[in-house]
């Protein structure tokens, strides 16, 4: 049976691109974004774990086709995809393109990008302080923008293939606002981040994340003293009196997976 998400609830008036029929059938409706936006996409277990160091990245989602279809769709809408070096290290041979995650929808994703007047693939933007990444990885052959510190640039100097470039920022850290400024300078307005949780935490803490697409996978990961399991947000503990809050935009289902789309509202949610 053809894959189709059931739309359980959706806010009226969301932006809606013209989608190829294959994608609107699979997604159970249309999707779209305002002209300048930063949105994130993650999958989490029911107990809030997004990564386990003793399991492959697909362990949380169970490799569910519906999740891969949505990941591909969100990549297909983006001008750039931002990931941290931790996410690259977890999947060093990966390419953050729509067809890589769901190959049989490649032509539908390509058709959508043509309709949106986008180049064939979103540009990969890699965040690293140290520059300690393997320059021979496929992402760099394909063409990536590495945003890093002066130290990171020195580490990578002369090592990356010609398709890739480095933007170095002053200081020991690369602040999330400065990263977005670099991206806007490159002409990237519709930007997806696939994390990881450390990078997501920094965008959230800076109030720069506009939307979160979260897949709730019907699995329980658990935690103990030995295994290293990451939550959705790492490296930040928000003030309990000012927790970032969100408003539900869309709720979809496929079998026991739920697909939620939230708008980040700063500290106040209109849904409260
Ligand atoms: N479930 C999901 O949907 C999902 C999504 C994405 C990732 N993941 C998983 O999450 C895990 C990785 O998460 P993570 O939090 O460890 O890694 P991450 O957020 O992907 O990357 C962290 C790394 O990014 C760099 N970085 C962080 N802040 C920076 C800054 N301000 N400026 C410049 N560079 C900065 C640093 O790299 P350097 O050390 O090179 O300096 C840091 O080690 C993996 O297991 C991955 O599979 C899961």
Write up this protein.
By secondary structure, this protein is an alpha/beta fold. It has a domain at 31-131 and 189-264: Dihydrofolate Reductase, subunit A, CATH 3.40.430.10. The chain contains 9 helices and 12 strands. The strands form 2 sheets. The chain has a 10-stranded mixed beta sheet with strand order 1-11-12-9-2-8-4-5-6-7, with helices on both faces. Strand 6 (144-149), helix 7 (150-156) and strand 7 (165-169) form a beta-alpha-beta unit. The radius of gyration is 18 Å and the shape is globular. The relative contact order is 0.21. The protein binds NADP nicotinamide-adenine-dinucleotide phosphate (NAP).
Record the SSE blueprint.
Layout: E1 6-10, H1 21-27, E2 37-45, E3 49-52, H2 65-77, E4 80-84, H3 85-90, H4 98-101, H5 106-115, E5 123-127, H6 138-142, E6 144-149, H7 150-156, E7 165-169, H8 176-185, E8 190-193, H9 197-205, E9 211-217, E10 229-231, E11 246-254, E12 257-264
Helix pairs in contact: 2-5
The chain binds NADP nicotinamide-adenine-dinucleotide phosphate.
């Amino acid at each position: 049976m053809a894959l189709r998400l059931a739309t359980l609830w959706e806010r009226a008036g969301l932006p809606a691109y013209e989608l190829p029929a294959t994608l609107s059938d699979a997604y159970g409706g249309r999707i779209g974004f305002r002209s300048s936006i930063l949105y994130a996409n993650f999958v989490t277990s029911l107990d809030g774990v997004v990564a386990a160091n003793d399991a492959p990245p697909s362990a949380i989602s169970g490799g569910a086709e519906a999740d891969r279809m949505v990941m591909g769709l969100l990549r297909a809408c983006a001008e750039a995809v931002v990931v941290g070096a931790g996410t690259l290290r977890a999947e060093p041979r990966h390419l953050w393109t729509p067809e890589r995650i769901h190959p049989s929808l490649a032509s539908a994703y390509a058709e959508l990008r043509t309709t949106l007047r986008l180049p064939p693939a979103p540009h990969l933007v890699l965040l690293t302080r140290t520059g300690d990444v393997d320059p021979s990885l496929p992402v760099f052959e394909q063409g990536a923008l590495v945003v890093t510190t002066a130290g990171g640039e020195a580490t990578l100097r002369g090592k990356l293939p010609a398709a890739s470039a480095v933007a170095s920022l002053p200081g020991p850290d690369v602040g999330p606002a400065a990263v977005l400024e670099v991206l806007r300078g490159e002409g990237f307005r519709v930007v997806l981040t696939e994390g990881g949780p450390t990078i997501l935490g920094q965008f959230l803490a800076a109030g720069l994340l506009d939307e979160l697409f979260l897949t709730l996978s019907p699995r329980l990961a658990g935690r103990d003293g030995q295994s290293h399991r990451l939550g959705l947000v790492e490296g930040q503990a928000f003030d309990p009196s000012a927790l970032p809050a969100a408003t539900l935009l869309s709720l979809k289902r496929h079998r026991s997976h739920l697909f939620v789309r939230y708008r980040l509202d700063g500290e106040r949610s209109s849904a409260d």
